[in-house]
Amino acid sequence: MLPIPFLLLLLSSSILSPSSAADFCVADLSLPTTPAGFSCKKESTVTISDFVFSGLGATGNTDNIIKAAVTPAFSSQFPGLNGLGISTIRLDIEIDGVVPLHTHPAASEVLLVTQGAILAGFISSSNSVYYKTLYEGDLMVFPQGLLHFQVQCGSSPAVAFATFNSPDPGLQITSLSLFGSSLPSQLVEKVTFLDDAQVKKLKKVLGGTG
């Protein structure tokens, strides 16, 4: 137990020297982002609306090549998250839908399935593979920066919510980076060991050039 004089010193220090840290840093979306995130709004302009986001209740548009939709609640959609190191998304996957191999360079992810079934997995840096079919109420974690995926399985569309330990986790989809970009086909063939016909077919499907 600390001596009483020392306890009194700590108490008096806390009274005389309050923390200078702000309670929050609501994003000012009218200003450009910085490496540290958005600049803070003036506290006098902050309202309750900055701390509430109502965009995850509706199904996302899955009318696309992967039959999946991500509805984000990052700091650019949800200003109150700025600086807090957290964010979330809604994931909708139609029957036969897939979220291809991708990474989040700036965050780890926890996925919660709320409807249907999703086969999800990731590949470690030592090329070990971890995957499992998740059902309603199941959680899975994807460590930061590792390649991972989600595939709808079962007889109905799937819904899940993911949280990240960053207000802007970043995203890079491997197939789009390779075949939806302007990286020359010869280079893609060299780094993927695919032949010319396969590369050009995938570039045509995903909108790549070169």
TrEMBL record:
SS bond list: 25-40
UniProt-annotated binding residues for oxalate: 104, 109
SMART domains: Cupin_1
Binding site for Mn(2+): 102, 104, 109, 148
UniProt xrefs under InterPro entries: Cupin_1, Germin, Germin_Mn-BS, RmlC-like_jellyroll, RmlC_Cupin_sf
A molecular-function term among this protein's GO annotations: manganese ion binding
Intracellular or extracellular location(s): Secreted, Extracellular space, Apoplast
Superkingdom as given in the UniProt entry: Eukaryota
Keywords on record: Apoplast, Disulfide bond, Manganese, Metal-binding, Secreted, Signal
Signal sequence region: 1-21
Cupin type-1 domain: residues covered: 54-200
UniProt GO cellular component terms: apoplast
Family designation: Belongs to the germin family.
Identification of the protein by name: Germin-like protein
Species of the source: Dendrobium catenatum
